Amino acid sequence: MTALAERITGLVGALRAHGVRIGTGETVDAARALEALGLADRERLREGLAAALLHGPGQRAVFDPVFDLYFPRGVGGPDGAATDREALRDRLAQALAADDRALMAQLAAEAVDGLGGYGSSPGSDGWSAYQTLDRLRPQTLLARVQADVRGGEGSGGGFADRLLDDEIRRRIEAFRRMVGADARRRVAERRGPDEIARRGVVPTADRVDFLFANRDQLAELRRTVQPLARKLATRLAARRRRAARGTVDLRRTLRSSLSTGGVPMRPVLRRRRPVRPELVLLCDASGSVSGFSDFTMLLVQALHDQFSKVRVFAFVNRLDEVTGLLDHGRADPGGLGARIRAEATLTGWHGSSDYGVALGEFAERYGEAVGPRTTVFVLGDARTNMGDPNLAAVRDLARRARRVYWLNPEPRAQWGTGDSAAPAYAELAEMHECRTARQLGALIARLLPV
Amino acid sequence: MFTSVDDVSARLAETGYLASPAVATTVFLADRLGKPLLVEGPAGVGKTELAKAVAQVAGARLVRLQCYEGVDESRALYEWNHAKQLLRISAGRDESWDETRTDIFSEEFLLPRPLLTAIRGEEPTVLLIDETDKADVEMEGLLLEVLSDFQITVPELGTVTATRRPFVVLTSNAGRELSEALRRRCLFLHIGFPEEELERRIVRLKVPGLGAALTESVVRVVGALRAMDLRKAPSVAETVDWARTLLALGAGTLDETVVRDSLGVILKHQDDIQKAAAKLDLDAL
Ligand SMILES: Nc1ncnc2c1ncn2[C@@H]1O[C@H](COP(=O)(O)OP(=O)(O)OP(=O)(O)O)[C@@H](O)[C@H]1O
Ligand SMILES: [Mg+2]
């Protein structure tokens, strides 16, 4: 039982390293779950431990690969002769056509064993999912599997067959993930699960760097917009309630104390501002940071009823208002960025960002959008491509707005390197590092006016 | 209550609830560990139904607290029956106030609400706290107290402690983020959309008249719709509705016309219908 207890603590440690908050109570529950379920059925154990240790659905994406490392499917490679690539592809095609998940998992293990090892003798240095998939090329099986299914008797040949393409793609995607899991398992056998669980497991979507997120991760992130917005709305409401309780207005308290001979009898509470604040967003929509901008715009759109007015502007080297486009963004969040780049005028003579010109254009054309009730957020990496940063425009903005915040998706250490004008802008507007959705959520909860 | 995970699956199935491995395992553990079960997931995946099914197989009474904005102690815990108390006061004019007071704050004038009802019972009980996310934060504090010690204090009567802890199921649609403290008290179960195989079984069970080929097509199309990033993805409830509709229409197979004419049963938003029609290559609606 001590070996098992160690595995539980290892698992818990790795999850904590990924930001999952787990207390001792939950760890004890996990041990009791293990005792009640036993090791006989791995998938049940997985569900049981997840139930005891996790608190939300977003954590499942790190839990599953970490669980696979501490409670591996087996030890070593599959039994039997080394696998020939073509034979493997044949069998994989059949498994994909039949959607046989168990067989797919077994083939993934064989593939890693036969094609994934590297070093002087195969596997002596490690196992690579990338190499396995590169050699096996499962994606090239699509047409063949399609033909198999269509030709087979199982297919009704009816309407649903137009879905086949996507279904097979999803199966291939599942197979790729199985290969990834098995390669991690093999590496962990060599180097121990602790290290692999911390470094080899992709972080939850909200901790992925905006600047390095791939398409799937961005899509995953977009799915978190609504839940995140609801969470933030709850927090903003709490802050608003606190603010509404009122603070003592010293000046008015003293003034009213004149009637009681200068003795302040009744504290006068500052009444809260009755109108909701206004928000203006200036977003760099150039390729380098567009993932960050798009996500933030969607989030602000989802929060729009927290404000009396929200206006959103996008720029590359020209600037245009996109508030209207954002409204439609709700129906098709994935297409928002493309639509903005297609329908708004964001570039002039060239395609790279120019903060100076864009900020100048904002002051000139939309100056009236900013008043003493407006909080302005500038989103971007402050990389001006050597152009003039136009500090005067930001200074002017800061003077007219209630607050100006700048959210920068680059790590702080890179501010000011190369063509980054971040330090100069940071003197005029409060600049925050904002690399992940998690950071963004925390910043918004703190900085948004209520 | 249950002897094994298989026992959970088998007995839930008898009531018409087909549990995924995750559901069966977690229900088994909640019973074994004596912890409340927090069930989260999109609308219509069978969260409420699960609690009802558990009550049925356990031969337990089901006590349900339906949460909504503004639900408070007097709706969740207990309330004094003021009207009856007033009647009693005016009826007993001759006795001393002390006598009256002891009398009107007795069991007879108490209106127990779901939480108190569930805790007081002697018989096996399933307490369903439905749509917890709709209640306000204050309510969560109250739940936390009740679920920690399974006791409730009525100042005039004393403390009621559960002689037999109810099996507690809380459901949430994640409309509001529940507090960390409440989550820690519970085992967590996320019910998502079912695997194809399970969904086919659910359709077969609920709409037995539908042919096997059609059942399969229905589940495949619903699966494709869920992959589309719609405003509201169709849930199990919609799958079952759609299957019923197709049966009623007497459709033998799925074809373009049938799908186009019945898409409104599965999708609730006009933009979703349009988007799905485009992606499914349906002729213009
Ligand atoms: N696993 C299942 N087995 C049998 N029926 C199911 C299952 N899952 C869902 N259903 C069916 O789906 C319908 C919707 O379920 P239910 O009302 O419990 O959903 P819910 O998750 O509570 O949704 P909401 O969040 O809207 O309250 C039920 O009528 C039930 O028949
Ligand atoms: Mg319900």
From TrEMBL, chain A:
Signal peptide: none
InterPro entries registered for this protein in UniProt: UCP010256, Uncharacterised_CoxE, vWFA_dom_sf
One Pfam family in the UniProt entry: VWA_CoxE
Domain of life: Bacteria
Family matches, as PANTHER family: BLL5662 PROTEIN-RELATED, BLR6139 PROTEIN
Protein name: VWA domain-containing protein
Organism lineage string: Bacteria, Bacillati, Actinomycetota, Actinomycetes, Kitasatosporales
UniProtKB/TrEMBL annotation, chain B:
Highest taxon in the source lineage: Bacteria
CDD domains hit by this protein: AAA
Alphabetized InterPro entries for the sequence: AAA+_ATPase (IPR003593), ATPase_AAA_core (IPR003959), CbbQ/NirQ/NorQ/GpvN (IPR050764), P-loop_NTPase (IPR027417)
Lineage: Bacteria, Bacillati, Actinomycetota, Actinomycetes, Kitasatosporales
SMART domains the record matches: AAA
PANTHER family: MAGNESIUM-CHELATASE SUBUNIT CHLD, MOXR FAMILY PROTEIN
Record domain AAA+ ATPase: where: 33-197
Gene3D superfamilies: P-loop containing nucleotide triphosphate hydrolases
Protein name: MoxR-like ATPase
A Pfam entry, by short name: AAA
Originating organism: Streptomyces filipinensis
Single GO MF annotation: ATP binding
